[in-house]
Amino acid sequence: MGDFLQYVELNSFLHRLDPRSKFVFFIIMSVLTSFVKSGAALLFLFLVFIAIWLIGGIGSYILVLANKVKVLLLFIFLLWLVLGLFTVNEGPAIFRSGFSLFGHAYVFSLEWFDFYKGAVYALRIFLMISAFYTVILTTNFSQIILGLQSWRVPYAVAFGVGLVFQIIPMIVQEFATIMEAQKSRGLEVDKCSAFAKLKNYVIVSLPLLFRVLSKGHAISLAMHYYKLNFKVKRTSYQTISAGRSDFWFAATTIAATVMTIVLQIRFYIQI
Q: Is 133 part of any domain?
């Protein structure tokens, strides 16, 4: 479970799917979650994700992911609550107070709608991250490259995209390693307030930057030493082809997308 951000070899329907199906799923969900702002639509999409994770056997890994990004989601939620203090919205208010400063009238107002906005944006970010890691957990490096090459994507571009899908989990894993090292030195990151957690995360950002640069340098040296040449034509023993499972997965993705758009149109509230 420690390597939850990397490819997990399981015999599930998600792992057996054509990598192109999962890549299209990632693109569609990334676009969808970037413009959907309806709580009802996002909640429906979240339920679809849960069903996919449970059927695909990666539900426990997604729970670990949620635990790792909970500080980020809490920060987003609190940020929208703070921004909501400076905006007066319609509806029942929890707290509202006016004051005057230098001849200008100001109002601090906290409504239930501010909690709705914070939850919507936090859920959007989580779904974006989850779509990315759903592909990572079920698709290895070679499958990503092979799938993109089947679309006539140049090998250099396919290799770069596949490398991105591998590097990001490595960066997050490095971040977790640094946090564990800081905990052993007495830096509290669990049993403290949300704002203290954010401050402590900022503290470890500098060593993380140097670790990331070091990893990038190591990858560049490895590519140089092994004389990686993108101009050489490559073949593969592995073949990929779409099957019945891919058809049903694509149909589910399309149906979920259409339903999400319908809910977005019918239940959208300006935020």
A: yes
Instruction: Dump pLDDT digits (tens) for 190-213.
Output: 666 656 666 666 676 777 777 777
Neighbour tally for 131: CB within 10 Å:
20
Domain that holds residue 32: 13-267
Number of domains the chain is built from: 1
3-state SS string for 201-244:
HHHCHHHHHHHHHHHHHHHHHHHHHCCCCCCCCCCCCCCCCCCH
Q: What are the residues whose beta carbons fall under 8 Å from the beta carbon of 245, sequence distance 6 or more? A: 13, 16, 17
Q: How far is it, in rounded angstroms, from Cα 79 to Cα 77?
A: 5
**Domain for residue 22, yes or no?**
yes
Q: pLDDT of 219-228, one tens digit each?
A: 777 776 767 7
Environment class of residue 174 by beta-carbon count within 10 Å: exposed (0-12), middle (13-18) or buried (19+)? Answer: middle
Q: How far apart are CA 96 and CA 249, in angstroms?
A: 48
Q: Is 58 helix (H, G, I), strand (E, B) or coil?
A: coil
| pTM beyond cutoff 0.70 | yes
Residue 52 to residue 121: CA distance in whole angstroms: 22
Q: Does residue 103 lie in a domain region? A: yes
**CB count, 10 Å around CB of 90?**
7
CA–chain centroid gap for 136, Å, is 11
Partners of 104 in the β-ladder: 101
Nearest to 143 by CA among 236, 248, 249, 11: 236
C-beta pairs of 87-94 under 8 Å, 24+ apart in sequence: 89/113, 89/114
Residue 258 lies in a domain: yes
